[in-house]
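Recall that a protein's primary structure is simply its ordered list of amino acids. Everything else, from secondary elements to tertiary packing, is in principle encoded there. The following example makes that idea concrete.
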Amino acid sequence: MRAAELLAQATKRLVEAEVPDPGRDARRLMAHVLKVPPGRLTLFLPEPVDPELQVIYLTLVERRADRVPVSHLVGRRMFYGREFLVTPEVLDPRPETETLIEVALTEPFGRVLDLGTGSGCILLTLLSEREGAVGYGCDISPAALNVAYWNRNALGLEGRAELLEGRWFEALKGVTERFDLIVSNPPYIAVNEMPFLAPEVRDHEPRLALTDEANGLTAYHAILAGYAKWLEPGGRLVVEIGMRQGMAVCDLFSAAGLRGVRLIPDLDGRDRVVVGTKPR
């Protein structure tokens, strides 16, 4: 079977399964199986596909029809121009989170702390973008930290990023320095919103990283209760939020003593990031 015929068959299957953007996903999976750059897949469509690769491809298509995320099937996800290892133990890096990166990079920083680092995509992207900066990534999940270790080493950041296990600031036992930037994409989905998530998220990403099993604000309370000890005067706290949490989190920031609190939308115009500065 030629690649074009196989691609048409796969796209039809994903359409039947009501997978969002089925043509895109069928192409991404084919590029992965054929080991060709996605942008050059068209050049290979007239060619026959080895029968063994056909079986592998159609198996992946069936798993995608079951709503397994593409990133879990190919093991990688692009984020801010870099490729990160992704497994079911970590959140899938999302384009919306790049808004947090953009906000963090608007001002200088030399020491950054990432709370709930997961795959490490936020911490490692910031260090890659800011030469000479160093930082810590903390996570309560050893399985998530294993993924972050792999991504750190793949990006050559072993000497600049340290990864620690523990809940929020409790992971920093023995650390003495303070930070001029603290960032976090914490679990902010309210428990009553979980049933309405896309199956790719609800059924295949770690629940611990998605919801606090309460109203979605628990993590912000924990972060704001401990940030003052670790953030330098003049330093910034930058967090990602749910699209209906903007005013609530801004109020929490102000009540915790942060100044210049701002609510920043993502490229789709949805509330996405809250940033505040510790007074000098």
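The two ends are 67 Å apart (CA to CA). Residues 18 and 41 are 24 Å apart (CA to CA).
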